[in-house]
Amino acid sequence: MERPLTRNIRPHEPPLALEDYRRVGGYEAVRKALAQSPEAITETVKEAGLRGCGGAGFQTGIKWSAVPMGPDAPHPKYLVVNADEMEPGSFKDRLLLEGDPHQMVEAIIVSSFAIQADQAYIFLRGEYVLARRRLNAAIGEAYAAGLLGPRILGSDYGLELHVHSSAGRYMCGEASALLNALEGGRAIPRAKAVRTAVSGLWGKPTVVNNVETLCNVPHIVNNGAAWYQSLGLGDAAGTKIYGASGKVGRPGAWELPLGTALRAIIEEHAGGMRDGVAFRACLPGGASTAFVGEAGLDAAMDWHGMQSVGSRLGTGTVIVLDDQTCPVGMLLSLQQFFAQESCGWCTPCWSGLHWVASLLHRFEAGEATEDDFDLLRTQADHLTKGYTFCGLAPGAMESLASGLDLFRDDFMRHVSLRRCPWRT
Amino acid sequence: MLSEEERRDIELEAPHYATREALCIDALRIVQGHRGYVSDQALQEIADYLGLPLSQVEGAATFYNLIFRHPVGAQVIFVCDSVSCWIMGCERLLERLRAHLATDVGGTSPDGRYTLLTVPCLGACALAPVLMIGETLHGHVTADSLPDLLGKGA
Ligand SMILES: Cc1cc2nc3c(=O)[nH]c(=O)nc-3n(C[C@H](O)[C@H](O)[C@H](O)COP(=O)(O)O)c2cc1C
Ligand code: SF4
Ligand code: FES
User: Fold this and answer.
1) Residue B9 domain boundaries
2) Model ipTM?
3) Is residue B85 part of a domain?
4) Is residue B68 part of a domain?
5) What's the whole-model pTM score?
């Protein structure tokens, strides 16, 4: 089985330096790309069917196609790598950034060339200190080797690359809020009426892509669209870094064909449940996805498969809930996170999420009534798409709405016992 | 006024951005790096130096989790309290830390060595429960391994 994204990553070992990275074929994709037209690369990425790994699954080639090209296009143009990874339960981008920083840099050069970007930024989570050091080391080597800066490898194309270390807030991961953060302001989202591809950072054409999304690009350029499609199972194209956390035998992350069954990830790769606990349900793609119970485990972990069981692929990192852990407490932890990280821009979100968290707290404290359950239901129905300015609150409601359905009896036990059954 | 080192560090970032305004967050982080936290006075100094309204600098300073508006201890302990770490027992860990450091979350130990904070998911959920001491990540932390970690972090 091919694992293009993680082939150079060795646990507990430092990442490949430039020379070693080149020895295993690194930066070949830059050479190949520079010999083609930018449009041809975008076309190959489109054909390959690469979809965004930041959570929404938008087609990368289509996103790039919206950028104005040609001699009349406004400059500078920007490529921004979304390396803000802060979605609870998600830990795949850290692996790629720390494990193979040169792959990230190569991916940025090739992708920037495709949209003819002049400047690229890696918007990096402030807490990712090791990733920052390793990226800056790789970028330094790349500049020294003429892979960054003006006239890359003797071509007409030049690119500057800078790591921006964030001061931390979940909203920075939202693509338009990220641009406000990069411009030095608060991370509140922008109106979607104007497309970032036309008017983004400092009003110039800008593409924002996730770390994992971009890391696929050099491999697609090297091996072609058909090869990329052959990596996935069924209709799915490429590989995906899946992960699992919670009380499983071997929590971790693995690069597998996109379309691998959810059950295989939990039972084979994560080693099943730990001794003494049983599987209850899981959030398949991080904190902003809906719970999937036993009945949905045979679905494929891809865009269609997760939709068919009422959830989403999200970031592809599974959070497993076991039978010894209180589902209401888990929902409270999730909603406290969202309430705290709401940017405060629109009222349904900042006010509603705090209300949701306080209602869940009432259950955990043994103070809730059945009416509070209905109130939570109402909130879950109202904080959805179209009622808020960005996707944070609707994302928060995905686990809540599905959790209210799956765990109704657990909520009611909190009411009748007047305490959390899992706390003594 | 900002110190010479602070101004130098800010100017090292300047060529990477299209506007002076964009230096605001880097400036906050740089000043905090030198002084430990960002005081009201420091906000004014940054505003003056970058030529921005004070309200804009303050708006950014109060928005971001990693900008400290109060003095902190010699080291900051960031305990992940997000969902995977919660499942793996971060509440117990926090309880132990509160007792050990004799401070609540948000406070500093009486000896001034540690400030205790919670932080959203540190992107290391397979190692849950997880915490950072200063810039170093520690995984699979147990109540029993805490005293050792704190010894090392000093
Ligand atoms: C509240 C919120 C937080 C987000 N956080 C991230 C993040 O940390 N990393 C990321 O790549 N995308 C994140 N996204 C999705 C981005 O808005 C955007 O869709 C993505 O970066 C686009 O890249 P892709 O097409 O390569 O997936 C977030 C979205 C929302 C609404
Ligand atoms: S939904 Fe929440 S996070 Fe998004 S803009 Fe509104 S207040 Fe901000
Ligand atoms: S939930 Fe703690 S590191 Fe992810």
Assistant:
1) 4-63
2) 0.97
3) yes
4) no
5) 0.97
